[in-house]
Amino acid sequence: MRGNPDMTLAYVMVLIFGCIAAIFDMKTRRIPNKLVLAMLITWLLIIKPKLVFDTDAALVYLESSALGLLVSGGMFVLVYFLSRKGLGGGDVKFMAVVGLYMGFGGVISVILIGSILAAITGGTLILFKKIRRKDPIPLAPFLLIGIALTVLLQ
After folding, report:
1. How far is residue 46's CA from residue 60's CA, in Å, rounded to a whole number?
2. I want to staple 22 with a disulfide (CB 3.0 to 4.6 A). Which of 79, 89, 130, 141 is the partner?
3. Contact partners, residue 39, CB within 8 Å, separation at least 6
4. DSSP designation for 45
């Protein structure tokens, strides 16, 4: 998919939406549903011409996107319930749609990078007594770094 203009547009858009989500999450500790809906609509607008003009490639992309949505959404829903809602619902919805943009392989990388960076940052803040163990930290900025690094490495 490298060099594919459709993927380039998808990557640019997910980075833009990721920036907006990170800003909202840092300021309000929420990722708005309207932002997630705009992400979904934009993804549909990106994939629609590909379905018409390059159906075979679009079907491959759709398969990976569906897997990305299911894996990221499923993992985050599981963490949401296991953490007793320690993870926000906005994070779950955001990552499900990021899965559409990044596909299966990409979203796994995003989750790993973002989670590791959030854990290191949270641990450091706890160690230096800037936050307590139960204090929330916004996850979207770390997921944005995961998205950016994944896009750069693909």
Report:
1. 15
2. 141
3. 13, 14, 17, 94, 97, 98, 101
4. H
**How far is Cα of residue 32 from the mean position of the Cα atoms in its chain?**
14
CB 138 within 8 A of CB 25: yes
Per the CB < 8 A criterion, the answer to whether 70 and 62 are in contact is no
Q: What is the pLDDT along the chain (154 residues), one digit of tens a residue?
A: 444 556 799 999 999 999 999 999 999 999 999 999 999 999 999 999 989 999 998 899 999 999 999 999 999 999 999 988 789 999 999 999 999 999 999 999 999 999 999 999 999 999 999 999 888 899 999 999 999 999 999 8
Q: Following CA atoms 151, 98, 72, 111 in sequence, which dihedral angle do they give, to the nearest 10 degrees?
A: 40
DSSP 87: S
Integer Cα distance of 8 and 48 in angstroms = 15
CA distance 100 to 37: 13
| Tokens coding 66 | 């569906």
**What is the C-alpha separation between 96 and 65, in angstroms, rounded?**
10
